[in-house]
Amino acid sequence: MSNDFLIRFSYVLLMGFGFPIMRYMSIHFETLNNNAVRFISGGLLFVFICVLKYRNELVKLLREPSIILYLLLLAAFMTGNMYFFINGLKYTSALAGSVFGIMSMPLAVIMAAIFFQDEREKVKQKNFYIGSILSLIGSLIFVIYGNKSGDSYDFITGSLFLGIAIFIQSIQNLFVKKISKKLNTIVISASTAMLAGIFYLILASNTGVIYQLQDVSSGLLIGLIFAGIYGMLTGMLFAFYIVQKQGVVVFNIIQLTVPLSTTLIAYFTLGETISIYQGFGAVIVIVGCIISLRKKYNGN
């Protein structure tokens, strides 16, 4: 139980730093270049880990070629998801990105419950619905009274992009759930990151935007590389691990606390203030998460 809690807490904290980093990079890099560099740099790290510790997992790919197809589909969904997500961050804010992530919960839960028996058992619990509704209400309060964009048109455009991204993500998580039964999480992360990075690199080359990287300072480019490694370790590896070990439903409930972490970190690092109404919404989110996860903890 303590190990599960530590993993959940670490994910929320690290993602709290991750959204401001992604927001910063989305402003300074074109989306295709941004994702190409981030995914390839993070993917290379995962490939290195796989070569050292998980070479035996490659045998599974040879025995079951159908897994390769699922990995390609997962990478395609990841490519679409992050394209719209990064564009959404560019036009909104780090907080908006983290909050839209939790808004995918109802759709993700419904899809997971349709396809997986273990997920259906979780949503049958009464406390799940009570806690989830409270958390969603708190999240809405948190967003409505949060920092607002100066350009309403840009905010609407960005919100549309983020909405498309979370729809794709809800489907993407189903593939993660299915593949994770056959492959180690790190292997899934490595293949998904590298394939998505290659997709983005091809798109950046074909559209010519890749040449924009020549005008970027080496320091900023190195920062993007490290941002990619950080993002893959937190947003992909941690997320895939939680989906594999604790389920899609639990993962989406944990997502509810990420906006709180993002805002608190932005407060201490960037000096952004939190209104009383945001604080009230934050309390509701936390209470909702505790209620939703209560039986899960007891079950452990």
Automatic annotation (TrEMBL):
Assign the protein's first listed, main location to one coarse class.
Answer: membrane
GO cellular component, alphabetical, reads:
plasma membrane
**Domain annotation EamA: ranges:** 10-143, 158-293
Domain of life, source organism: Bacteria
Q: Which Pfam family name is an example for this entry? A: EamA
> What topology in the membrane does the UniProt record assign?
Multi-pass membrane protein
The alphabetized UniProt keywords are: Cell membrane, Membrane, Transmembrane, Transmembrane helix
Q: Where in the cell is it found?
A: Cell membrane
**Does the keyword Zinc-finger belong to this entry?**
no
Q: Which InterPro entries match?
A: AA-Vitamin_Transporters, EamA_dom, EmrE-like
Q: Where are the transmembrane segments?
A: 5-24, 36-55, 67-86, 92-116, 128-146, 152-171, 183-204, 216-242, 249-270, 276-293
Q: Can you name this protein?
A: Transporter
List the top taxonomic levels of the source: Bacteria, Pseudomonadati, Pseudomonadota, Gammaproteobacteria, Pasteurellales
